[in-house]
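Input record, target 12 of the design panel.
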């Protein structure tokens, strides 16, 4: 499964089960619209043959008139030869998602239902404008997926190749060798052929060499206000509100750029349908990097709520494991928050991969959401970071608390280079 999108079971851990029961998730999910699309809408041959995945002999190229393709940003890496200890050629996982253009059904009833659930129009709010925003952001959940499709892409050096075909969820993933000389921190654009079939533009490939710093950052309530502890908050922040950064976090991340010059991964439990809702937000406020999202149920709006709250520890651990296979020699800083299972996931990854890989873990204590007091308890963090040295992890409320800690990471890194330890 692609690193940019991942499907993991949604059985919650203790921390994940606590939030839904404490903040009204069962009530809202009981009444929220369920199925918004069906596989019945997918042609039978495409539906059945999609089980064959990349080996599907019945797959077809995308139709420039009827189809659209999303090209997802990625990170190129280099393995190290075990004998010569020299870096090998650049490699990256190329991921694409395929949809039928303009295939969404009448979404008016879903728009009205969401508007009612979040109280849209109260206190002088412009309901009509709000419903227009809901319609625009719901569209990627309404368009029918196009399994068993492939697309041609063009690399900057003129090489062309085929991506796909996509499998059951109309997502294709393949490992591609990249020619040419590239340096750590470089980036390149990869375009679809013809370009207009990818309405959100080309894929951006970031280059991360064998050594250096890597940041693995959560999104929701770590760097973006999402209110994941509240189902109504999730609906409003996702479908109505202007995406808003957490105060002080853009400045902190720019400080990290100046200090560590890292490669960035943004790891979120949001479904991949929100990719081009989150990507512009990240590009506006934060350093560009690879956005890793969950291959959640595209046909179930209640499943969207569940994807943000259930199975997140397992999902994030699996994605971090994948990043480790690509970049095992880099130094990693993990940033998350207390609303879900970031402390547990990061603690597990430290115990698995050790201090040789994860150098620091920063957890934002979220205090402006009702019903999560237990998630901010000292005992919770102590258990999550069991056997993790106390100087590795820290909990913060104000991002300014971390500036000195980031400087300390650079100082340790400098000493290691000078003294060889």
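The sequence produced for target 12 reads:
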């Amino acid at each position: 499964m692609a690193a940019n999108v991942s499907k993991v079971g949604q059985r919650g851990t203790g921390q994940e089960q606590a939030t839904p029961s404490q903040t009204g998730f069962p009530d809202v999910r009981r009444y929220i619209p369920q199925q918004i699309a069906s596989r019945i809408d997918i042609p039978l041959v495409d539906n059945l043959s999609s089980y064959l995945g990349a080996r599907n002999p019945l797959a077809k190229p995308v139709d420039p008139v009827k189809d659209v393709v999303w090209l997802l940003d990625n990170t190129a890496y280099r393995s190290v030869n075990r004998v010569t200890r020299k870096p090998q050629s650049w490699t990256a996982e190329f991921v694409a998602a395929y949809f039928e253009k303009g295939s969404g059904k009448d979404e008016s009833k879903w728009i009205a239902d969401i508007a009612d659930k979040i109280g849209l129009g109260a206190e002088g709010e412009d309901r009509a404008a709000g419903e227009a925003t809901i319609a625009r952001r719901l569209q990627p959940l309404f368009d029918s997926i196009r399994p068993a499709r492939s697309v041609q892409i063009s690399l900057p050096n003129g090489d062309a190749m085929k991506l796909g075909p996509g499998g059951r969820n109309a997502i294709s993933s393949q490992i591609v060798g990249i020619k040419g000389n590239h340096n750590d921190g470089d980036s390149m654009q990869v375009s679809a052929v013809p370009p207009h079939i990818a309405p959100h533009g080309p894929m951006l490939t970031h280059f991360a060499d064998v050594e250096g710093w890597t940041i693995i950052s959560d999104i929701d309530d770590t760097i973006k206000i999402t209110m994941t502890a509240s189902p109504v908050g999730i609906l409003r922040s996702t479908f109505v509100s202007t995406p808003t950064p957490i105060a002080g976090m853009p400045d902190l991340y720019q400080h990290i750029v100046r200090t560590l010059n890292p490669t960035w991964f943004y790891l979120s439990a949001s479904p991949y349908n929100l990719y081009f809702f989150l990507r512009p937000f990240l590009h506006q406020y934060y350093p560009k990097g690879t956005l890793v999202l969950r291959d959640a149920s595209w046909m179930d709006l209640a499943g969207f709520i569940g994807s943000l709250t259930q199975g997140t520890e397992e999902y994030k651990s699996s994605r971090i494991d994948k990043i480790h296979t690509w970049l095992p020699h880099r130094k990693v800083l993990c940033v998350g928050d207390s609303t879900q299972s970031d402390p547990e996931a990061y603690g597990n990854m430290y115990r698995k991969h050790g201090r040789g890989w994860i150098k620091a873990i920063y957890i934002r204590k979220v205090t402006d959401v009702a019903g999560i007091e237990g998630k901010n308890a000292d005992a919770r963090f102590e258990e999550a970071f069991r056997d993790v040295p106390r100087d590795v992890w820290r909990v913060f409320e104000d991002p300014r608390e971390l500036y000195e800690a980031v400087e300390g990471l650079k100082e340790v890194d400098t000493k290691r280079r000078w003294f060889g330890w």
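DSSP finds 13 helices and 16 strands in the chain.
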